[in-house]
Structures are given as C-alpha cells and as structure tokens.
Amino acid sequence: MTLWRADDAARATGGRATGDWQADGVSIDSRSLQAGDLFVALKVARDGHDFVAQALANGAAAALVSRIPDGLDDNAPLLIVDDVQAALEDLGRAARARSDARVVAVTGSVGKTSTKEMLHVVLGAQGRTHSAEASYNNQWGVPLTLARMPADTEFAVIEIGMNHPGEIAPLSRMARPHVALITTVAAAHLEAFESIVGIAHEKAAIFDGLEPEGTCIFNADIDADALRAVTDAAQVTGGPVVRFGAREDCDYRLASVQLTADATVIKADLPSGPQIVKLSAPGRHFAANALGVLAVAEALGVDATLAARDLSNWQPPAGRGTREVIVLDPVDDHSITLIDDAFNANPTSIKAALEVLAAAMPEDSVGRVSKGRRIAILGDMLELGPDEIALHQALAQLPQIEALDTVHCVGPRMQSLWEALPEAKRGRVVASAEELAEQAHRVIDAGDVVLVKGSKGSRVSLVVDALRRIGRAAGQQMERR
C-alpha cells in the first residue's frame, strides 16, 4: 500500500519534491530501511544526510532532506524542506488528519510500552490497528509513528514519553487522541523535576491534546498530591474522567491479583460487570496495566469480555520482564530461568520485578548448590536526582528482599543498596556491567531463577547477553559430542 506520494508529501511539508516517487513506509535508519521507504535524514546521533546515498542505494523510494547531499545524481528522488525534524512533524500531523482512526495516547512513569503492546493486541482483534515500534515515544518517535500510519487505520496507539518538563503536551496535540491513558506516576526522571507532583503535572499534560469529549483515564493508586494534580487536569478537559486501581472509589477496580510462577490472574470490577483476566506473564504491575487497557477498550466501545479474553495473548516486550529457559547442560536437562527486565528501572518498577522474582519457583537438587535460588542482578537506577542514594538504599527494606537468596549489585549507586542489605543476601558488587558479565557463569547454578534489572544506561543487558551465551555454548558443546 502506498503511504506517501511525492505531491502529497510536498503539500504536507511545504517542501519541494524531485521526481514522481511514492513511498510505502518511512524510515530514519538506513541500516533497517526497507525497499520503498521514505528515508528521513534526521540529525540525531549523526547527520542523516551522510547516509542518503546509502539509503537510496538500498532501495529507498526517496529521501527527506534539508540540503542536497554531495555526490547524488541530478535525478535523485528527494523531498527538500527547510527543516527535516519540522517536516517529519508535518507528515505526522497530515497522516493524523487524513485518518478516521480512533487514537489512544499512553504515557506513565512505568508500563508505557507494555500497555501499548496490550492495547495493540486487544484493539488489533477489533480492526486495523497501528502502533509505535519499540519505545518510539519522543520528539521524533511520535511524529514518525504518525507518519507511518496508513490512511485506513481504525485504531492507533501512540506512546508518549518524557525526560524533561514541557515534552508531552506538544506530542499529545500532534496525536490528537480520543482517549489518553496514564499508567502511573512514580519516581522516574526526578533529576529534571522538583518532586513527584511535578512529574504528575507533566504526565497529565497528555490530556492537553484530547479531541473534544475525549476520555481521561489514569491510575489512582499513586501519591495523594500527584493524584490531585492529575485529577484536576483531567476535570479541566470537560470530557469523561475514569480512574482505575485498587482503591474502593475507582471506576475500574482491581479486586484481586494472584501471581503464579508464569501467570497473573486478575479479578476486576468494571462498570459493565466483573471480569477475570489471565495474563501469560507474572506481575502485579502488569495487572494494573491490564485494568487500564480494559478501561480504554470500553471507552472505545470494545466489549470488555472480548478484551479480557484477548489480553491472554499478550506477552511482555523484550527486556521488560520476558522469561526464558537457558539450558546449562543439555544431557541432564539442567537449566536456569532468566527474567530479562533490563530495559529500564526506577524504585516502582524494581519493586514490581522483585515481587515477580519472589513468586518464582526455583528447582532444588539439580545443581552444585542443592537448593535452587532466587537471584537478583540489579543495575543502577538513573535520573533520580539528589535523593538517588537514599532511593537505592531503601530497596533493602522492600519485603520482597526476604524471599531472595542473593542480590548482585552493578554500579556505584547500587553499591549503596549492597551496603544496606543483610549480609546473608549480599552477592557480588561491581562497578560495571562488563565486570559482572565476565563473571556470569560463576554466579548461577542449575535450578536458579535469575532476574536482571536496571536502567538502560547501567548496561545490565550485557549480563543478559552473557547468560544467553552460556546456554548457546552448552548447546554447541552438545552438538560436537
């Protein structure tokens, strides 16, 4: 399906098209570009203009540029504009304007991407649904997602994130959602805000872009002052205001959550009646996200029972609580269970991840250590501001710590947690993820359940990679026998 024709794109951006090209997609990365894409030469980490020739050689239909790169043929298909970022935003607005899609915007301190993926599963069962790749939720990710939206889309799910004040409102106005959802407000990016109330005001700015009579949906299980800020912002819109959570006064109330080793069973009271939801992944935080999804579904006119059924098909995105078995010895079928939650971390998400680990069941009497263990490998939580050391130390007081056997700590901030832990819980403490990755084979044993969690900048995903390599090496050794 043609997404953009040269004349349509030129009209949307006020630019000048060379050639009569048509594009089937939009890309900002020449390495992952598909033949037929419009390549957008953004200046992010590097200047995209340096890769235009490569993109065209790889099959790009055209390139969106602010200048003609050196070495191009005179007949190279281009869309020439004054500013590439502004033109991408114009494409996003134009794509949104030409579509009759019902649009949902999602933000929150944690759970944005998981909730976006849940919504994609639920709404995808009801009609043609478009959503962002990965965590494309910033100043270029949101317009890129919109610019990629086919005109015949029926539902769109737009994830909106932030690092600093003032980021969310313009992105919400660009998306013009019919429903706006806040998954939660918690201590994340505190170094850019004076308090959690400041974060609440920024998250509530997602309501600024709502279409007339649009619905505000938010988690009410948050700090009281933050809840007041979000509620006030929602009421100003004049549209429906929906609260979800465990509080008695919630419109969508979480009646109970049962965690098993590999599932979450949710009982919820909805305005339309009680519902039971079974998620194929453990996590109390996933339960809250699922309840918000049910609220969105009903706001869009989707039957809650169908939505609850389809939620069972959802799986966590990579790096956000995915579980996998890593075989250490193919002959004896010895293995560990890895919980990969290495994409991001703050105090709220670490508490949720430790609860999942505490509910997991290790296997005894299969390894060198007779008792299977619950092991946490925790990397630094970043962007927490002046109280970051105290926030790391406070993790030692979480009740879930009692159920763990060993906690390995990665990074200078997590060292403060290691020092606050009971001595019996202390594992290794290292300055960098590279160090622990080198020691990965020494900190695990058959039967263990291992959680790896940390902010992306802590690079604890390197430990995940090291654990996976142990499994691959075991498989290769088996093949050689």
From TrEMBL:
Enzymatic reactions: D-alanyl-D-alanine + UDP-N-acetyl-alpha-D-muramoyl-L-alanyl-gamma-D-glutamyl-meso-2,6-diaminopimelate + ATP = UDP-N-acetyl-alpha-D-muramoyl-L-alanyl-gamma-D-glutamyl-meso-2,6-diaminopimeloyl-D-alanyl-D-alanine + ADP + phosphate + H(+)
Keyword Cytoplasm (UniProt): yes
EC primary class: ligase
Keywords, ordered alphabetically: ATP-binding, Cell cycle, Cell division, Cell shape, Cell wall biogenesis/degradation, Cytoplasm, Ligase, Nucleotide-binding, Peptidoglycan synthesis
Localization in the cell: Cytoplasm
Gene Ontology MF annotations: ATP binding; UDP-N-acetylmuramoyl-tripeptide-D-alanyl-D-alanine ligase activity; UDP-N-acetylmuramoylalanyl-D-glutamyl-2,6-diaminopimelate-D-alanyl-D-alanine ligase activity
Gene Ontology CC terms: cytoplasm
Protein's UniProt keywords contain Repressor: no
Principal location listed in the UniProt entry: cytoplasm
Pfam family membership, one: Mur_ligase_C
Taxonomy, superkingdom: Bacteria
Domain Mur ligase C-terminal residue range list: 334-455
InterPro entries the UniProt entry points to: Mur-like_cat_sf (IPR036565), Mur_ligase_C (IPR004101), Mur_ligase_C_dom_sf (IPR036615), Mur_ligase_cen (IPR013221), Mur_ligase_N (IPR000713), MurCDEF_CellWall_CoF430Synth (IPR051046), MurE/MurF_N (IPR035911), UDP-N-AcMur_synth (IPR005863)
Function: Involved in cell wall formation. Catalyzes the final step in the synthesis of UDP-N-acetylmuramoyl-pentapeptide, the precursor of murein.
Protein family according to the UniProt entry: Belongs to the MurCDEF family. MurF subfamily.
PANTHER family assigned to the protein according to its UniProt record, in alphabetical order: UDP-N-ACETYLMURAMOYL-TRIPEPTIDE--D-ALANYL-D-ALANINE LIGASE
Name under which the protein is recorded: UDP-N-acetylmuramoyl-tripeptide--D-alanyl-D-alanine ligase
